[in-house]
What does this fold into?
Amino acid sequence: MSVQERKERERASRERLIVATARELAEQQGWDAVTTRRLAERIEYSQPVLYSHFRGKREIIGAVALEGAAEMAGALRAATTATATATDEPRARVVALARAYLDFAADNPAVYDAMFQLDGGLAFAQEDTPEPLKDAFAALLETLGEVAGDDVHPALFTELFWASLHGLATLTRAGRLPPEDSELRVELLVDRLAVV
It folds into this structure.
């Protein structure tokens, strides 16, 4: 291995450590607790080393958001694939998708905030949207596009369904909706919006 390859590997490893530490700190104490000083202390590197990877907290949030989008896409696809193996019913896949989305949001609140609530400097619904964000939307579209209805644009339907899931996730987490009715909400959402 060349010196350059070793340096690139070490740099990538430091970057992963910074992102993982920021994510862990945010999940434990919230994003306000994530500062470059605290990150530098936790990973035992100087602040200039952090700034050599990320220009600031905003870029760190963006990196966490991209990682989270890739994880969410994987979770959505795993849920719908498992359901497709068990049954060929589109409704069951949509329910599995909705549950997987809401579970991801509940299980990863700081990551979910990085993806959708905080400014990570990422473009959404643009030509320059990063690939992990496009793939997360594609993971929704793959299942929802087939239940949009004949005269409904699949991407627009997916946006509406996604907005509904986001609203449910956000309102439930904020304590505005009682969590014991989560399953009923998913069933109602699927029955009223999806053509299954």
